[in-house]
Amino acid sequence: MIDLRSDTVTKPSSSMRAAIASAEVGDDVYGEDPTVVRLQAEAAAVLGKEAALFVPSGTMGNLISVLAHCARGEEVIVGDEAHVFYYEAAGASAFGGVQMRTVPNRRGAMRPSDIEAAIRSPNIHFPRTALVCLENTHNRGGGRAISLEESRAMAEVAHHYGVAVHLDGSRIFNAATALDCSAATLASVADSVNICFSKGLGAPIGSAVAGSAPFIERCRKYRKMAGGGMRQVGVIAAAALVALHEGPRRLEVDHDNAKIFCDALGVTSTIETDPDAVQTNIVVFRCRSSSLEPEALLEKWREAGVLVNHMGNGDFRAVTHKDVSRDDVIEAARRLQSV
Predict the structure, then answer these.
(1) Whole-angstrom distance, CA of residue 287 vs CA of residue 297
(2) Were 171 and a residue from 77, 137, 220, 322 both cysteine, which residue would form a disulfide, CB within 3.0 to 4.6 Å?
(3) Residues 311, 317: contact at Cβ < 8 Å?
(4) Full-model pTM
(5) Residues 282-324: pLDDT tens digits?
């Protein structure tokens, strides 16, 4: 089976397993787990922020960031294809009483003019605009890396009106690799940033939120409130540390494999691809004609030994990662075509 559903499906490497086995641990709710303390310090430094907080998942990282930035009854501006809006089960609304207002995503970015038009003026009828959420790379934008110039333009509009900016940087290291810059450079436009160790970096679990020290203290309270206060969690943080050290260095391989997969997939007339859109480790493709509904097609591909995801409206997504090779992606393309 060649699993291209997501870069979250990877298994921990031998170096991660060794780190897990030998991890020094303590009680992290008391701030006494030395491995977590080290991970948080290194994550903050890599992202150019004052402090960081280890959390179980990117969804929790985004949720507690929104809660730390916004009061109940306030509003967040997001792209209409943003992960925090599309895939996080309306958590900010359910748990924080925070409303999300969408503006169009254009291959992952939002027009600064659209953001400006959505920011509320003071009025007793309106919620206060408290936050703008960016995403880089952009999942439903085909893994597009949003340039520093685009990110800065969006953030500057928010900051001009006194609105905070949060960056969902779950795959920020993929963006940094594609754009040949540092993760800290891309995160510099935002007041806070969420990163995932369990996506392209290959750790089995874990994310981190970074920002100012007061912001992180607010996040720590919300993490506890959301059930994310963990105890001897250094066994998990140890694998995340290995991912942080080793993962970014090999992301270029994933990006190359995604391009190879896209090129191999597009050699027939039955599957439609856009090679120019493949910037990182995500490939979005369509079937030009099929008698099968998307879910039935997914099952046929599963039977042929390839797993991909349906994103809706006939768009399929494949994601390369550390556990698939160049030969794997070429073989996966051949099997998809044969079906």
Answers:
(1) 10
(2) 137
(3) yes
(4) 0.96
(5) 999 998 877 788 999 999 999 999 999 999 989 999 999 999 9
